[in-house]
Amino acid sequence: MKQYEMNTVRPEQTLQFAEKLARSLQPGDVIALEGDLGAGKTTFTKGLARGLDIKRVVNSPTFTIIKEYHGTLPLYHMDVYRVGDASEDLGFDEYFEGEGVTVVEWAHLIEEQLPAEKLTVFLYHEKLEERKIVLVPNGKRYEQLCKEVFS
Ligand code: ADP
Ligand code: MG
Predict the structure, then answer these.
(1) Quick count: other Cβ atoms within 10 Å of Cβ 93?
(2) Residue 49 CB coordination number (10 Å)
């Protein structure tokens, strides 16, 4: 499977990359974020918010699971860390099929509930301020998105 990689050496670069990606997003797009604590999942989400012209401050929705923001598109920000390995249906479909973009931190914890077609973004903590970002597109829409962002 084709994947796309890049390294960032400062938080601002991760923000800028996510901002660029966000400008190519469409209603119904789903982004699954994977990476350890502190890898940069929330930082990446803040960059997406910037690219969608969201003015409110985005922080981790640890206690609410889902936070909704309004910009050029709605952004549904989920952090499912506390949901654990939930197999029960928590109604996420309404978001995935909604008019906005969904971004899910710790996405593999709800893997069975995620759409098969999505963009998975892996963040790896390399050094103090260096991160490797790996994008894995699943489905034609997301292959196209990656090509656009990396062109
Ligand atoms: P997560 O949501 O994955 O737990 P956060 O985004 O909350 O991670 O935290 C990442 C931390 O790492 C932030 O304090 C951020 O400033 C810092 N950081 C350092 N370098 C980078 C980088 N290149 N990209 C993203 N975050 C970075
Ligand atoms: Mg986080």
Answers:
(1) 12
(2) 24
Cα(40) to ligand 2 centroid in Å equals 7
pTM beyond 0.85, yes or no: yes
Strands (E) in 29-117, as ranges, are: 30-34, 66-70, 74-79, 101-105
Give pLDDT tens digits for 106-150.
999 999 999 999 999 999 999 999 999 999 999 999 999 999 999
Which atom of ligand 1 is nearest to 10's Cα? 23
- Which residues approach ligand 1 with their CB closer than 6 A? 8, 10-11, 13-14, 35, 37-43, 60, 105, 129-131
- Protein residue with least CA distance to atom 9, ligand 1: 38
Choose which residue among 7, 19, 43 to substitute to test ligand 1 binding: the one with the highest number of ligand atoms within 8 A of its C-beta: 43
Structure tokens at 102: 């969904």
Query: Is the C-alpha dihedral spanning 30, 144, 124, 51 positive or negative?
Result: negative
- Which domain range does residue 38 map to? 4-149
Ligand at minimal distance from the CA of 44 is 1
Specify the number of domains making up the chain: 1
**CATH number for the domain harbouring residue 107:** 3.40.50.300
